[in-house]
Protein 1
Amino acid sequence: MNVISIKNLKKHFGKTRAVDGVSLEVKKGEIFGFLGPNGAGKTTTIRCMMDFLRPDKGSIKILGLDSERDSVEIDKKIGYLSGAVRLYDGWTGDDHINLIKKIKRNGKFAKELIKRLDFDPTKKFYYLSSGNKQKLGLILAFMGKPEVIILDEPTLGLDPLLQNEIYKILKELKNQGSTIFMSSHNLSEVERICDKVGIIKQGKIIAEENIETLKRKAIYEVHLYFERDFQKSDFEKIKGVKVTSEFDNGIALTVKRDINPLIDELSKYQLKDVRISRASLDEIFLEYYEK
Amino acid sequence: MRNDFWAIVWRVFKDRWVQLVVYSGISFFLVWMYVALFPTIRDQAEQLKVLLETYPESFTEAFNVDEAFLDTIGGFLSAEQYSFIWPVFAIVIASSLGGAAIAGEVEKGTIEVLLAQPISRLKLYFAKYFSGIVILAIFTFVSVYSIVPLAAIHDIDYELVNFSNFFVMALLFALSTYSIAMFFSSIFSQKGRVYFVTAGIIILMYVANIVSALKDNLADLKYASYFHYFDSSQVLVHNNVDNLAYWIFIGSIVIFTAAGALIFNRRDIAT
């Protein structure tokens, strides 16, 4: 079952095509990573999902409901964190939590989150550090254990320990049935917790893949050490192979996707040593960004 | 109405109570000062009336100076407090409430927290609007009905009916200004713009009212001014309530409020 379904979403601001035909689907219980360079249209897409912005064209369905017409019904089941957490300077964390509790009539998870994130809810928002502001934003998003959680850069400004705690909480919520849609610039975080990613560039989705599929598309980094002389051009002509550096009796290569043609070529040579490693997902994402 | 509506009303009220107490307190003490001064001024009424007769008629008309203003506390307060100082306070409070309600939230980005809650935009708008009505009503009540304890303290006669009628008119004036501010707050994304435009419109109305009294060929301009309808001396001295004034104020409240709500319901909110 699709919890989030976006079809041909378009949102233009004058001549700027912020979102230009985005379509994507997120299934129940998935953690969906929404990636893209700055200005690609991530936040605009999220704001359309939250009904802050009205699409020029296309449709957004969340839990089978229309994001604009049924926004009140949808908001009962959504937890939302904005990109830069902006709350009321003069209010304490408790003030914020109590208001959301009163409106949503739900906040069963707030106490536990305060403890787990080591957050002081008695301080006014104005006096909180950026990390603590982010913690409060996350508490407000998670406290109702919502069916759908939409997060714009959830771990922004958090130290690695807290990032790990957030990943743990997200996984727990997923296991309890929540569906999570998160934009992020932190690629290792996406690799670690997301089931699926969508990559947006210039307002269009350029890839939507399972993390595992993406990993299979990985780039290999190969270091070859030869017993005798070798012809660099023999390797350069192989499709998907790029020579990145050359050293005494050896070369370093990157190989995209299929490594077998390289192995065939290597059978002509006596090798002293060979090292093959997978490039990180970061490099795959960057490939998409640069395309 | 549900919990969510009242939760927002209560929150706005909590955020604004200091402003409310300060302005209401100042207004109360000003009324107290004028009430305390009134017996002395009344004793010198004849001399002051002679002085007043030397002013051109159009001048006294332009500034709503009633010839009987020294005879009653209502007339005196109208001239000293309710025809200029009180409207300035009301305009400041109404603009600041209206500007902060929507545009201020968009400017700070805090509107996203509210829009992400299960409350419709219209309900949010009217929750904000209602909190402003409560605050303005309290301010107006304190400003007008402070006469009750103060007159008792200083042993001064007053007509409660006149003050009650004036309370209604003053509240309608404040709410009309507030509705204009809410309307522009729904359009703009910076509260400064709301203050600027609302204050600009009200100042223009004030100038239009004065100019219309000074220039015969511009006499009809007064009908475009709230200050023509907000005639404190007519109500406080003569208990002369112009029904047209009520309809003008109520009409502009309804029109600006409805237009503001519709715009807010449809607009994009990008913080």
Note: Chain A is about 35% helix and 30% strand.
Protein 2
Amino acid sequence: MNDLVVKDLTVEYSSGGLLVRPLVKKSLTAEDGQLVVLLGPSGCGKTTLLSCLAGLLTPTRGSIRLGGREITRLQGEALTDYRRNQVGVVFQAFNLLPSLTAHGNVVAPMALAGARRSVASARATELLEQVGLGDRMNHRPGAMSGGQQQRVAIARALVHNPPLVLADEPTAHLDHVQVEGVLKLIRSLAQPGRIVVVATHDDRVTNLADIVIELVPSHAGVDREPEDVELTDGEVLFRQGDPGELVYVVKSGGVAIYQELFDGGERHIDVLKEGRYFGELAPLLRLPRSASARAAGDTVVTAYTLRRFRNAFPGSAMQAPGLNGAPHEDG
Amino acid sequence: MLAITIADLRFRARQFLIAVVGAGTVFAIALLLAGMVNSFYAEIDRTVASADADGWVVPEGTSGPFTSIGGMPQSTVGAIAKTAGVTAASGMVISLQSPDRGALGLERIMMIGADPKGFGQVVPDEGEPVRKNNEAVADRRLDLDIGDTFVLGGRTFHVVGLVEGMTMLGGTANAWLSLKAAQGVLFGGEPIVTSILVKGDPEQLPPTLKLMSNEEVAVDSLKPMKDAVDSVNNSKYLMWVVAAIIVAALIYVSALQRTRDFAVLKAVGASSRALFVGVALQSVIVTALGALLAISCAWMLKPAYPVPVEVTQAAYVSLPLIAIGVGILSSLVALRRAVNVDPAIAFGAGQ
């Protein structure tokens, strides 16, 4: 079976010395012929996940298996072969080569793979006709609309008839007329022998999907009673890069807010005492935590959902983030 | 990769054209400088060879027949001719002079006086050789035709023959006179010679004289210009470097502009080697076109130089080869960018 199985995928890198974890233990499974939509706002790790699936980025931990074959351990020629033949990518900004015609752009991957020119040319012609660009083959990208360029990019991704097609924000640069055509085309690609993974923040795309994976689950509608969390001295409440669901208020003791550095060190930010709240921006903006929190001495914090926090603290930064001097350590 | 490379060249044609013109102009200057250096050597070799001698006898203490004047009694010529190993000897008077060409004014020449009946006289390309004491054979750079006259040492000389490329000191025209006439100009008619040409290999010479081979004479004749020749020669190498910098700058800027293209190509399966070959190919095409432009430019610019410029066939043939070398070298600056580009950049996020 041509299944795609992603397990506990974690990506970490350094940004200005800080440890950034755009993906933390992400898992997904897709069966042959399915259209998977990765949904989430900018910065939630969609592109990072696509890069890993495309074999362009090696994850820090975790596994990606396509048709039973482990992808994360591929190197050298095997990796190049995977990129050439097993995966087709439709990039966000089309990323066509401006110097080549539509036909030339589709021929390029085959030529690079050593295909005979006549074979590559015939295949490119066939694919461009398939995506409705039979009459635009000799136009350069600069002379084509966004929708047409996206179609060329799709044709290019299909040249080797890969079992995995990835599309990054395929509707981002298109007007509504073009969106319709491109989405229909993408939907038609998901068929036996091929899995299509689309990363988008456009929730209209979810209607076409077989599977929708929200990379940052929305907690806005979640509601439950506030609950106390007891922490022993040094115990970590959450880590930088973790998804953020709750807002915390220090009930007793103290909480140290710090940033984790890529080299293993830490950068101290603040120690919050009784009555101070923290962790509000991550659930509010649906971003991962941008700092870590741990108990400074034996501590009790109260965990609130967004709704409960708003009700309990009507004058807080939740209403006007950043205006009341409260620590905004995890925006 | 070739098709992608060519397409990119066409796409950025204006940018590459500027580099071709820049590199071509610099290559042309390098070619002309090479021709200039070559002419400094070639004019000496031709002048020395025109004497048709095996060796040159000059007074001990003088540097060479063309670079210093040391007089010897003309009777020495006969004595040398009788020395064992010598089959023939001929006296010469050589010195720098400035004849008056009338309306054309004064011009510096290398006066070479030799016995019209002996050897050492040049065979003219046009006209007749020197037979009389008021006749001269001159290089065309003196701007005189057959039948024209010039005044030297108060004597009037008629040009009876012309030669081409017979100069010294970087374009100073040679003028051959009879030995007697040259003695009249330089020594007031005294029977003195400044050097003696010999055929054969003298077994022994008087201690006051020394024998110089044609090669030694050539080396010595270049000495007054050595610093200038070395400077020109070094400038030629500098021109190669300038051309390399021009092309390298273009290729580097082009590589910067194409970072995303490289990332996309890598993402769709291009190897790092293929990307570098593409960059190197562009660089080589630019320099090769520059070399072709340089060859035609050199032809046009040659007459603008007051000194002789003799670009050899070898220089014309080697220029494209050097240009290819320069192109490959230049492309190395973009090597890291092409090879190390992160294919994830194609996604736009770069992470």
Note: Chain A touches chain B through 36 residues (CB under 8 Å).
Protein 3
Amino acid sequence: MNTNHIVENLKKEIENFKAQIKVEKVGVVLELFDGIAKVSGLSDIRSSEMVIFGSGVVGVALNLEEDAVGVIILGDFSKIKEGDEVKTTGRILEIPVSDSILGRVVNAIGVPIDGKGALKSTKTYPIEKVAPGVVTRQSVSEPVATGIKVIDAIIPVGRGQRELIIGDRQTGKTALAIDAILNQKGENMICVYVSIGQKDSKLRKIEARLEQGGAMKYTVIVSAGASEAASLSYIAPYTGVSIAEYFMDQGKDVLIIYDDLSKHAVAYREISLLLRRPPGREAYPGDVFYLHSRLLERACRRNEKYGGGSITAFPIIETQAGDISAYIPTNVISITDGQIFLETDLFYKGIRPAVNVGSSVSRVGSSAQIKAMKKVAGTLKLDLAQFRELEAFSQFGSDLDESTKKQLERGKRAVEVLKQLQYAPVKTEHQVVTLYALVKGFMDNVPVARIKEFESGLIDYSGNNAKVFYKEIAESKMWTDKGEEQLKKVITDFKKSFN
Amino acid sequence: MTTISNNDIARAIYAVAKDKSGHERSVILTKVVEFLARRHMLGKSKEILSQLRKIINKETRTVEANVLSAKALPAKTKKELEHILTKRYSAKEIILNEELDPKLLGGFRVEVNNEVIDLTLKNKIAQLQNFLTRSTA
């Protein structure tokens, strides 16, 4: 390409250019704090309208006062000076969306940060939207296969549900969510992972892990890192759910993970205090409940008449020293349709995932469970409940009567079966086979230490020999007598060879 | 505690002093200053005065326009501008505050309250720059 060519190209471009003449509303930056600006003027501005600072940085008007406007700055606020001009745009904050966003890592305003080039998109979605109304919704009835045995069996999650993952630091909350994304391969699900105030190194690890598991093809990562301004952390989940809505509007099912909403609430508290909004309990502003409820209400399952599609949300909350009665945890527990409670004690006992089955619930998910799973999970729940009750006696060993001993032994095996390695999701039909063998007592005389070995062996063996059973599960989600007979025979045969 | 905004004070001053003149007005204004001193609000007098100016302009339908230009505007252009502004804001009177700024390169820029009509060359060049960098991205 020679210089003449460049000049010709430039000329052509310049021909297409027409200067726009329009009346603009402007204001002047009066004060500037961390990520917040107070701006005079800007008459007739709307709440959460986008504004543009002289240096090109975008902001959002949050506080409309009599003679000034409080603006959060979404970008590098070090470039903004007192006295800078600010222009209104007449638009509510929006992000570019397109199908090509899949597999990308974007920041809180939808700009790619993974170095794979710009995103081409013709459509934009506003980041704040009113959640779908009652007439457009449908109740939850399709399962989300997370591939985690304890969740799929005991705390099942349906498409369109909001299930909270709650626990202390280092209890495997993110690991649970990442496993759920990994298991969506071939499940016809788009995943959005929103990382709020997380370390960039952690995000990098997650991205590499998803890439390795082939999950980035159907996943979008929205990131507002710990080093970025609080305002970006504040809008990141709304950006994430807008991307999810873009896919839901095409009738697709979407799984969105907010990691984590405690940091989101902290970012919002920071902004609110800088904007001089009155602090309430734990210094959070009065509308911190609405902050999360309006976000999580956007997770829904739409009925066929309105195009179908669903958004399943997994918000994550980090507790301090297991205190689930703090302000933000209680808020989010009451908003969601259930919670998965992870405990440090269980984690260090080696029960991983460290799900506390007693305090975890799923309020709507059981109607989404497939029939076969429901059948085996019902007995499993009972076994576990009885086990917890009797656990205290387990130290007395031989002094117990036969039936109590039996229950204890069964419980120990149930706990062992529900343990699972990280990044190793299990398919639903395999879960059914394992749990079937457990609750029907086939594992009772297998030593606890060898349960894992038995489980993996059984899955391999049954894959070739219990074809009728698997076919029935795949087709009608439930076994018939014929399939059950075959499975029983397969398990008995396998047991003989196991010893 | 309910706070009184600058705008409230300016409105109150306008309401009491509106129909008064001469001695009566000066008595009122002295009382206003006394009131502000008592409430430790003298520091805000600049803002209050600017609000008061806005209120008076609104009531008398006067429009104050700041005109920034690179070179002094010819009388004809000024007349046309006044005509357009009178129509746009349905004003009775237009006050043009002219200012010269060679950095604008050419054309002029009109500011009324916080509305801006930018017809300067500088703005056009900035728009062109934006256009060219965006279309190649």
Note: The first strand of chain B starts at residue 62 and ends at 69.
